[in-house]
What we know:
Mean pLDDT: 79
Order of helices and strands: HHEEEEEEEHEEHHEEE
Strand order of the largest sheet: 6-5-4-1-7
Distance between the termini: 25 Å
Number of strands: 12
Radius of gyration: 19 Å
Number of helices: 5
Amino acid sequence: MSGMTRSLRTALGIGVCGLMMALVGGPAAASPGDTHTVTGERVNLRSGPSDRASIRSTVRRGDELLELKQDGNWTGVRNMRTGEEGWVFTDLLRQRSTSTLSGGGPGSFARYSSGFDRLIGRVNEELGYSFADRVEAGENGLLRVTPTQEWLFNTSREAKIYAAMALYQMWKNHNNGRPVSLALGERGGSPITIEDAANGPIMDLPALVGSSR
């Protein structure tokens, strides 16, 4: 088994924190087909993904844009009002809705972070079972992740905590730093939760979080 394979396998076994946070440490990785709202008063629509690219026009606060592609800190968009296409600095957008056609099954993270989803896929192959059974975005910035029974049984308390931390960071980045919350656990059970508060994120650990190992 290669060094990379061992590292990936260890990552989910002891918590995925280091490798996954490295992958999701950048700006939001949204998906083509997502819709966004402009948050700046007047935002330049440029011909390329650079502040040195020529300005085609401007969009205004509240305008709705359809995402076409991503390039670093820039999002390629189509103005849903005029049909004009161009590039906008991603930090000046707020995601309004996600595409349901962006790929992946119910346990996929592809619509939120393609890099995170690829890593999860490689780790799933090495472990011989899947990490997530279902991934759902709810209201008020909530991401609910229901793990598989295999992962719940085969991971330690520390692994579950680190996994929750990595998922929170991925979700936080996907939302460009806006307040979010995460629930990791069985549906109907007592999940690990992380929720943004005024003084920073707060983690709540149920008593049974370390039950298996």
